[in-house]
């Protein structure tokens, strides 16, 4: 008799094992990085130096071509652009910190701060260079971004659809595109 019930339990588990996956989760927790990290070498710094010095040279050349007299403010701008080389070199090698991220019934928890769903308008997920969930806030400003790391994208999408609409046409923000281009 015992053997028969064991076989029945195994068959039930096999047949209905997908039901566990379909049951809605109360929250999704993981450890996320602050930003996507790109490893950088000396060629990256060399490229930044060439880019900034090239822009400075182009600025001066355009001013001379159009007969514009450079003022102290213009020279200050050139100096600030050159100082940006040191800022890029310094901050380009900072690795992201990890923090606990959560998608729960009360809202999205990013770096210990809870963003309730009533303060968010919509969400969208981009998958390049790695999966990122973006949240459009009700207040004006840049969207919130949360790296999904190794979380299944479809599971996160279905979870968020319970609380927020998915933005149909949104893509990566311009600042994110520039950051990816500069490998920051």
Structural features, described:
The structure is a single chain. With 184 residues, this protein is of the alpha+beta class. It folds into two domains: 20-35 and 96-181, Roll (PH-domain like), CATH 2.30.29; 42-91. The chain has six helices and seven strands, in the order ααβααββββββαα. Strand 5 (120-126) and strand 6 form a beta hairpin. Helix 3 runs antiparallel to helix 4. Mean pLDDT is 82; it is low at 1-20.
What is the strand and helix layout of this fold?
Elements: H1 2-15, H2 18-22, E1 28-33, H3 42-65, H4 72-91, E2 98-103, E3 107-110, E4 113-116, E5 120-126, E6 132-137, E7 144-147, H5 153-161, H6 174-181
> Could you say which overall geometry the principal axes of the C-alpha atoms support?
elongated
Backbone CA Rg: 25 Å
Structural class: alpha+beta
Give the strand order, joined by hyphens, for the main sheet. 1-2-3-4
Task: Provide the low-confidence segments as ranges.
Answer: 1-20
Query: What string, H for helix and E for strand, traces the elements in order?
Result: HHEHHEEEEEEHH
Portion in strands:
15-25%
- Tell me what the CATH architecture of the largest domain is: Roll
Instruction: Kindly state the percentage of residues in helix.
Output: 40-55%
Mean pLDDT: 82
The biggest beta sheet is recorded as: 4 strands, antiparallel
Question: What is the CATH topology descriptor of the largest domain?
Answer: PH-domain like
Distance between the termini: 65 Å
CATH class of the largest domain: Mainly Beta
Write down how many β-strands occur, each being a DSSP E stretch of 2 or more residues. Answer: 7
> How many DSSP helices?
6
Total tally of structural domains: 2
């Amino acid at each position: 008799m015992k053997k028969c019930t064991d076989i029945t339990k195994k068959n039930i588990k096999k047949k209905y094992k997908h039901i566990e996956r379909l049951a809605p989760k109360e929250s999704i927790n993981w450890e996320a990085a602050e930003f996507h990290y790109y490893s950088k070498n000396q060629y990256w710094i060399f490229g930044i130096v060439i880019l900034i010095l090239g822009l400075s040279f182009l600025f001066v050349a355009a001013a001379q071509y159009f007969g514009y007299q450079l003022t102290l403010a213009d020279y200050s701008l050139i100096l600030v652009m050159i100082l940006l080389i040191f800022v890029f070199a310094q901050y380009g090698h900072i690795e992201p910190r990890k923090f606990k991220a959560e998608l729960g019934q009360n809202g999205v928890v990013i770096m210990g701060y809870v963003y309730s769903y009533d303060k968010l308008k919509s969400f969208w997920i981009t998958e390049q260079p790695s999966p990122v969930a973006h949240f459009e806030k009700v207040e004006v400003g840049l969207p919130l971004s949360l790296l999904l790391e190794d979380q299944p994208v479809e599971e996160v999408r279905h979870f968020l659809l319970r609380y927020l609409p998915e933005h149909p046409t949104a893509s990566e923000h311009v600042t994110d595109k520039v950051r990816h281009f500069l490998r920051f």
